[in-house]
What we know:
The complex is a heterodimer of chains A (341) and B (259). Chain A is an all-alpha fold.
Amino acid sequence: MSEISQHSTPRRAAKSGGMPSLRALLTLLAVLLLAAVPFIAPSMQLLINLALAKGIAVLGVTVLLRAGQVSFGHALFFGISAYAGAFLMASLPGADLILVLVAGVLGAALSGLLVGLFVVRYRGIFFGMLNLAFSMIFWSILEKFYHVTGGADGIRLPRPTVLGMVLERSGFEAVIFYLSIALMVLLGWLTLRWFVSPVGQIFQSLKTNETRLEYLGLSPKRVLLSGYLLSAVLCGVGGSLMAMTQGVVTPEYVWWVRSAEMVFIAVLGGAGSVRGAFIGALIYEIVRVYASAFAGDIWQMLLGGFLLVIILFAPKGIMGIADGLIHRGGKRRATTAEEAR
Amino acid sequence: MTATNKAGTAKPPLLETRELMIKFGGVTAANNVSMQIEAGRNLAIIGPNGAGKTTFLNICTGWIKPRSGKVFLEGEDITPLPPRKIVRRGVARAFQIPQLFTEHTALENLLISAAAREGLRNPLQNLHNIRQRDEMMHLLDLVHCTDVADRVVVELSEGQRKLIDIAVALALKPRLLLMDEPTSGVASSQKHEVMEILVGALAEAGVTSVFVEHDMGIVARHADEVAVWNAGNVQLRGTPQEILEHPDVIRDVIGEEVA
C-alpha cells in the first residue's frame, strides 16, 4: 500500500514480502464482515454504527498523535459538528443528509481553524489542556444558553431526507450504517495516503525536530495547523454521523469524558494507527456495552484495567499485537509509515 | 572589498554584518562584529570555545536576534526575519549536533528537505515517488551515505548523521551554507576526503560556505579564507597560511605545543 515501507532497509524489505497484501486482505475481510452485520447480527447494527462514528473521530486524534501531540478536547469538533447539523435541521426541516454532513464538517473546520490558530503555538501538556479548556467553554455555553441550545436536554435532530427521499427508520438506519462504512474506508484510505505524502511526512516530523523544520524554510505552527484542521474535520464527520444515528445532540457530546474517551481508544487501538482507531473503537464500544450490561458499575474499572494491560505489555496497542502476530518469527522493526497503518 | 558587476554598479556582499552586539548574562558573545562574506568563497571560522562562533551563525540565520547591529543578505536587511524566511532566501544551515528527523530514514530526511524546497503539497503523492528522489540519492552518494539511505537516522553513527545533516542542508540548493564543525564525529581517516568532496560539490553548485572548525588541518587545506574569533569578535582575518602562522593564533587558538 505504501511505498515508504518498501524502501525500508534491504533486510526489512526482504522480510516484509507479501505482508502488505495480507494486511489489505484482512482489512477487506473486516470491512465485508462489518457490511454483513445488518444481516447476520442486526441487533449489533446500532452499536457498530456508533463505534464507526467514534472511530472516524478517533482518527482525528490519531492524526495529532502522529505529530506527538495529544488533545484532551477534540470532542469540541465532534460536538460542534453535531450541533451544526441539529441547528440546520431545526431551521430547514427536511434537509438532506448530505447537507447535514456538510454543515457539520464546515462547522468543525471553521472552529478547528479558529481554535487551531491559537493552540498551535503550544506543545505537550499545554496543547492538550488548552484544547480541553476550549471544549469545556463550549460545553458550558451549551449548558447555560438553554433557550438556544436546549441545555442539558440538548436538541432533537429529526431524521433528514436522503437524496430527497423520506425514509422510514429502518431504511434510514441502513443508509447511515453503510454511509459510515463508506466514510470509514474513504477517510481511512485518504489519511493513510496523507501520512505517506510529503505534506503528511512533514507534519509527522514535528514530533522529532521542529528546529530542522524551521531550517527547511517551514513554519512549524503552520504545519501543525494543517494537521489540526484535518483532525478537526475528521472529528466533525464522526460527530455528524453520531448525531444522525442517535437523533439527538446533547452537551455530553463535548464533555471532557468524550475527549478522554477518544484518546483512550486511540491508545487502545495503537497510537498513531489508522486501522487501530477503528478496531479500538469497535472493541471499546463492545466492551462498554456488554461490560455495563453484565458487570454493572464496574465496567469503567474493567476498561481501565484493560488499558493498563495494553500500555504495560503492548504499548503499540491492539494493532501492535496484530502486527506482531503477522510478523511472528521476524525481528523486523516497522518504519514510521508502517506504524501508521 | 565590494565587488562590481558588469554594469559597473557596486554589488553588495553576499552576507554582511554590521556592529552586531549580544550578551548572555555577563558574557559578550558578539562584540561589535562587522564583517563581509563574498560569494564563491569558503570561509573558516576558528577560535577558542566560547568565543562566539556558533552565536555568529545563530544570528546570521535569525535564530538569535542581536541586541543591536544588522545582518544583510545581498544588501537586504534580514535581521528581523525568522530562520525559515532567511532559509527561503537561500541560506542553509548544518549543525554541530545534527538536526534530523530521527524517526525517518536518511533518504526520507533528504526527501522531506526536497519537498520543503519545492513546496510539494499533493496529499496523495507518496514521498518516495517525488521527482527529486534521484537528486537526493546523488546527494547521499556525495556524502558517502548511500549504503545507509534506508536506515532510520537514530541508528546511525554520529559521523554519518553529521554528513546527512549537511546533505539535508544542501538539498535546499542554498546560495550560502553555514556549517558548524562539519567533520566532527567523522572518522579522522575520512575527514579530508569528506571535505574534499564537500568543497568540490559546493564549488560545482556555486555555493558559498562558512564553517566553524577546530581541526587546523582541515582549515589549512580546505578554506579559502580564515577568520579568527576571540571574545565575541573577529580578531584576525586572512588566508589560511597567514592565519595559521600568526603568532597570536598559535598562542591563543592552536596552542604552541601543537604548533
